[in-house]
Amino acid sequence: MSEGSEALNTITGEYCGMEKREQRPVDTNNTRDAVISILCGILERDNSLSRCCAVRALGRAQADDPDTLEHLIALLHDPDPDVRLDVAVTLGTLGQTGAVAPLVESLLGDPEGEVRIEAARALAKLRATQAVEPLIRCLREDGLPQLDLSVDDFEFGDSLEVQSQALTALGEIGDCRATAPVVEVLSNPDYEDLQESGFEVLSKLDDRQAEVFLLEQLASSSDSLTRRRAARALAGLAHGESQSGQPGSVILALINALLDVDATVRISAGQALATVDHPVVTVPLTLLLTDLDGQVRAEAADILVRAQAPGVVERLLEMVADADLELKVEITRILGGSGDPKTLPMLRKMLSSGDERLCYQAVNALGTLGLPGVEHDLARILNDPQFHTNTRARVATALGSIIGAAQTQVCERDAIADPAREQTLQALELAVFDRNDAVALAALATLTELVTPQEAMQFLLTLLDGDQAVTEVMPLPTENAAQEADNAESEPPPSSAPIPEPLRELVGEHNAQTSTLAAILTTPHNARPAVPRDAQGGARAAAHSVQVLAAGLLGQRAEPGSSAVPALIGVLEGADTRLIREALAALSRIGDPEAIAPILHCLESDDKDIRLGAIDALAGIGKMQDSPALNEALTRLLDDPQATVREWAVRALAEAGGEMAAKQLPRMLADDHRSVCRRAMVGLTPAMASPELSDQLLANLFRFSAGLRYDAANAIRRLNDFESTPRLLKILSDKGKEELHWICIDALGEIYSSHRSVTH
C-alpha cells in the first residue's frame, strides 16, 4: 500500500464508525507516526505542489526517522526545482548527518543555482567536515556556473551567490583546510564581492596561515579597505592573545596600525584593541586622543572611557576646551557615560554653551551623575521654551535623579531646609502647565515621584479637576507669555514628533492609536490648538491638557478603592473625547470593579473612539475581576454591526477568560470578518476544546486567506485537538478534493510541529 494507506484506513475507519464524536484520549505517538507515513506517501504524488507542502510539513514535524530521510533524500533528484529546494532546506533543519553526502551531490551537480545555495546553507547548519573539500571546489570553480542551464546571455545566474554561500559554510564549519582556498580568493582582485565575507571567514579559522595572511594585509596592503577588513578580522585573535598573558604579533601589529595613514583603518585597529584586556594597549590608544581626525579622537575616547583607563577623564577634560563643536558633542556624551564627578564643572559649563546638542548631552550626563549643585541651571532650562522639547523633558527627569539622590541621604527630609529642593519643586510645578505636553508630562511624573504618595495623589486629583487647577495650582502667566506663544506658533512643524526618550516608560507599548497620552505626545505642538491670548483662557487650555496627563499618571499609581477611582469616573461624564479615553485607560489599569457600570455606560456613546476605549477598559478590568455584568455587556458587543467593535470585544473576552469566553469565542469563529475570526482563534485555550470547536476550526482552514488557515491550524495544535487528524486525512484520501490537499498537508505539519514521538 502507498501513502501510508494502512494507517490511513485504520484512523479514518475509526472516525467514520463513530455515530457521535466524543472527547477521548488520543495516542499521539501512534497518530503522529501514521501522519508521517502518509506525508511520506504524498512525496510520491504527481502534483508538485503537494510534494512541496509535504516536504515542508515533514520538516516542521521534525520527522527525522530513517525511512522519512530516505524519502526526502530521494527527492533531491525530483524534476521540479522547487521540490529539490524545499528538500535541501528541510534536510538542513532536521540535522541528520546521513543527509550530508546527498546534499554534497546537490551542491556539485544540481542545475539550479537556488538549490545549490540551499544545499550549501544546509551543509553549514550540519557542520559537516566531510563537505569541506566539495565546498572548496565550489568556491574555486565560481559556484559551478556550467551547471546553470537556465542562464542566457542576459542573465548572470546564481553562481556568485552559490560561491558566497560556500564561503560562508566553510567559515561555519571552521576547518583549517579552508584557509588556503579562502586566501586564494582574497588575493584575487576579480573576487571583490567576496572580500568582506572572506576576511570574516578567516577570523573564524584557528590557523597560523590565516593569521599570517591577515597580518600581511594589515601591514602592507595598498588598499585601505583591505587593511580595515584585516584589522577587524584580527580582533578575535587579539583577544585570544591577551588571555595568554604577553602581547604577541597580532596585538603589536594592531598597535602599529594605529599610525595608519587612513583614519578608518586607525579606527578599526582601535576597535580591535578595545577587545584586548592588557595594559600594553592603553598608552597607544591614549595617543589617538591627539589624532588629527576628530572621528578617530572620539572613537579613542569612547574606548578608553569604557575601559576605565587611568587618567583618561582628565585628558578628555583638557581636550574639550579646544575641540571643535562636533568633537565637543562626542566628548560630552562619552564623559557623561563615565559617571565621574570630576566632569561636573565642565558639564555645567556646557549647559550655557548655546548649542542644543551640547546642552542635551550635558543634561543627560548630569542626570546620570545625580550630584547636587546644578539644580538652578537645570530649572532655568526647564522653564525656557527656547530650548528643544527633548532637552527640557530630559531636564525634568535629571532633576528628579538629583533631588531623589539627595533625599535618600537624609532620614527625615521635612526636618531639613533645602532651598535647592524647594526651587526645583517650584520649577517642576510651573513646567506641569507647559504648552508642550511632553515637557509637562516629564515634569509631572518627576514631581509626583519627589513628594510623598499622599501628596502626589492629592496633586494629581487637583489637576484632574480642571477648574480647580486653574484657580489653585496654575501659576500666573509670565509677562512675555504672548510672545512665547507667538514664537512657538511660528516654528516650522517637525517632520515627525517621536515620544521623548524619558517618557517612553510612562507610555509603555501604547501608540497614538491605542493611547490618548501617546497621541498627544506625538502631535507637533504647533499642530495643537493655539493657546488663547487672554490669561484666563490660556490657563484653562493648559489646565485641560494637564488633566489628560494627570489621568494617565493616576492610572499608573492609584490602587483599587482609592479616591482616584471616583474622580476618574466623574471625568467620564464630560464631553471631551481625549480626556474620557485617558480616564478609561486609567480605570482599566487600576482594575476597580466600581468602574464597570460607568464604563458600560460609555458603550452607548455615539463616539466610536469612546466605545472602543470602553471595551479596552473592560478588558483590563476583566483580567482582575470576574463580573457577570461585564461579561454580559461584552457579549452584546459581539453582535455589533461594526467589525472593529466585534474584534475588540472578542479580544476583551479572551483576555478576561472564564466561562463566558469559553462559551462565546467558539461561535465568533464563524464571523464574516476575518479579523474577528483571527482574534477569536488567538484567544482559544485547551480548556475550551470540544467537538463543535473542532468542527469550526476545520471549517476555517478553508476560509479566507493563508494567514487565517495558519491561525486555524495553530489553534488546533494549541488545543491538542488530535481528533481533527482523521478528518484531514480523510480529505487527503479523496482524489476529488485535490485542490484542498495542500491546505490539509500544511495544517498537519503545523498541528504536529511540536509533538515528536518518544520512540525517535
What is the topological layout?
Blueprint: H1 5-16, H2 28-42, H3 48-60, H4 66-74, H5 81-94, H6 100-109, H7 113-126, H8 132-140, H9 159-173, H10 179-187, H11 195-204, H12 208-220, H13 224-233, H14 235-244, H15 249-257, H16 263-273, H17 282-287, H18 294-306, H19 312-322, H20 325-338, H21 344-350, H22 356-369, H23 375-382, H24 389-407, H25 419-431, H26 437-450, H27 453-464, H28 466-472, H29 481-490, H30 504-507, H31 516-521, H32 535-557, H33 564-571, H34 577-590, H35 596-602, H36 608-622, H37 628-637, H38 643-656, H39 658-668, H40 674-683, H41 691-700, H42 706-718, H43 724-733, H44 741-751
Helix pairs in contact: 1-2, 1-43, 2-3, 3-5, 3-44, 5-7, 6-7, 7-9, 8-9, 9-11, 10-11, 11-13, 12-13, 12-15, 13-16, 14-16, 15-16, 16-18, 18-20, 19-20, 20-22, 21-22, 22-24, 23-24, 23-25, 24-26, 25-26, 26-27, 26-32, 27-32, 28-32, 32-34, 33-34, 34-36, 35-36, 36-38, 37-38, 38-39, 38-40, 39-40, ...
How would you describe this structure to a colleague?
The protein has 44 helices and no strands. It starts with a helix and ends in a 9-residue tail after the last helix.
